[in-house]
Amino acid sequence: MRRRSFIKKTVLSSFTALISAEIVFGSKMLDGYTPLALQDPDPFKMFSKNKEMIILNDKPWNIEAQAHLLDDKITPNSSMFIRNNGTTPEEINPETWTLTIDGESVKNKKTYTLSDLKSKFKHHTYQLTLECGGNGRSEFDPPAKGNQWTIGAVHCASWTGVRLRDVLEDAGIKSNAVYIGYHSKDTHLSGDPKKEPISRGCPLPKALQDETILAFQMNNEAIPLIHGYPLRLIAGGWPASVSGKWVQKISIRNKVHDGTKMTGTAYRVPCNPVAPGEKVKDEDMCIIESMPVKSIITYPKTGALINEGKALNIRGHAWAGELEVVKMEYSIDFGATWTICSVEKPTNRLAWQHFSASINFPKKGYYEVWARATDTQNTAQPMLLPGWNPKGYLNNACHRIAVKII
Ligand SMILES: Nc1nc2c(c(=O)[nH]1)N[C@H]1C(S)=C(S)[C@@H](COP(=O)(O)O)O[C@H]1N2
Ligand SMILES: [Mo]
Predict the structure, then answer these.
(1) Taking CA 122 as the corner, what is the angle to CA 345 and CA 82, rounded to the nearest 5 degrees?
(2) pLDDT in single tens digits along all 406 residues of the chain
(3) 186 lines ligand 1 (CB under 6 A)
């Protein structure tokens, strides 16, 4: 048998310094072993994400997709962006998990176990587009503070759960109710248990829509922990921050919910356009509701090389918040002319729609393929950055990819 060889004293003392605590049985560690505290967590393995996902921050975790990773019609977990405001809750026991409905405007405060929710109310499945309000922030100038999302903070998964409306009505909604707010189990980065990392909500009519659900499944499986296991509020078409992960309480409010990140510049934009960099008074800021019309080219990947004379088949998705996309176009001449793409109807309301087109290029050279969606109110995506706002929300500029005909 090979003799165990123990760690060298010098290595042990450097580990001790790095951990800044005595490693009590440190002298018994095997040579070549790294204490867990010093092993880098592998986020790709930890969250089962594609290795091409881009890590913007690890405290808290913020990870985005690249356009080509979003090619599936229904986004798999491996390509779903992660946006945490605080620390992921640990030790979740679905047997003891409860959801409480309370607030000024609840008739009877009620608490449900997960099995109550699952057995008492009808189950519904919807594909729902969730886009972070800050998706595209990286393009704003002057720059906006916050995660520098490019294009990948959006996903459309299939969510199964019960209607929030059915649960709220079971508890009873008083006639003075105007808003709902969620409270969740994740903890504030400071560790202060009195502070919530985020507690947002939506006006009652949005909460009562058919597609607003309390989900316990994502893509037909239990929701991955990082995406809100065991229970998540899903409100498609609105900033994804409304879709509270790890939800434990929904308050029916008699006023606009005033939880963390409902006020100031958080998820609010100037009610009227302002000049870039301008200071905006608090009372001139409005809460973001439905997200604007937008699209993404998911195939090919930017940088594609295409042989001359060969048509290029592009595809991608388009969405328009509460509205539907009625027209999809592409341009290969920087927007001078546009050609219609085919675009499918959504599987259900608030699901993204799939578009495709076959493009012929006149000759060899460098091109950009730009995509532009138009919604039912005839609003089209701007070609370049839309209105500047202090926190860099709602960038719905046209997505474009570079291709070379060789
Ligand atoms: N409890 C809780 N819910 C949350 C968040 C959070 O930090 N905590 N982040 C919100 C924000 S800002 C976004 S964009 C989405 C991200 O969802 P995802 O991580 O499942 O992609 O979750 C929302 N729900
Ligand atoms: Mo977000």
Answers:
(1) 60
(2) 456 688 888 888 888 877 778 999 999 998 888 888 777 778 898 899 999 999 999 999 999 999 999 999 999 999 999 999 999 998 899 999 999 999 999 999 999 999 999 999 999 999 999 999 999 999 998 899 999 999 999 999 999 999 999 999 999 999 999 999 999 999 999 999 999 999 999 999 999 999 999 999 999 999 999 999 999 999 999 999 999 999 999 999 999 999 999 999 999 999 999 999 889 999 999 999 999 999 999 999 999 999 999 999 999 999 999 999 999 999 999 999 999 999 999 999 999 999 999 999 999 999 999 999 999 999 999 999 988 999 999 999 999 999 999 9
(3) yes
Identify the residue whose C-alpha is closest to ligand 1 atom 1: 245
**Domains defined for the chain, CATH in brackets:** 1-40 (no CATH), 98-287 (3.90.420.10), 294-405 (2.60.40.650)
Q: How far is CA 397 from CA 28, 387, 400, in A?
A: 58, 10, 9
Q: Is 321 in contact with 238 (CB distance < 8 Å)?
A: yes
Is the C-beta atom of 184 inside 6 A of ligand 1? yes
Strand order of the β-sheet with 342-343 is 294-299, 312-319, 353-359, 342-343
Tell me which amino acid residue 300 is. Answer: P
With a 6 A CB cut-off, is 294 part of the ligand 1 pocket?
Answer: no
Q: How far is the CA of 243 from the centre of ligand 2 (A)?
A: 9
Radius of gyration of the chain from Cα atoms?
Answer: 24
Residue from 241, 246, 265, 268 whose mutation best tests the ligand 1 pocket (most atoms within 8 A of CB):
241
Q: Ligand 1 test: best mutation among 90, 129, 198, most atoms within 8 Å of CB?
A: 198
Identity of the residue numbered 65: A
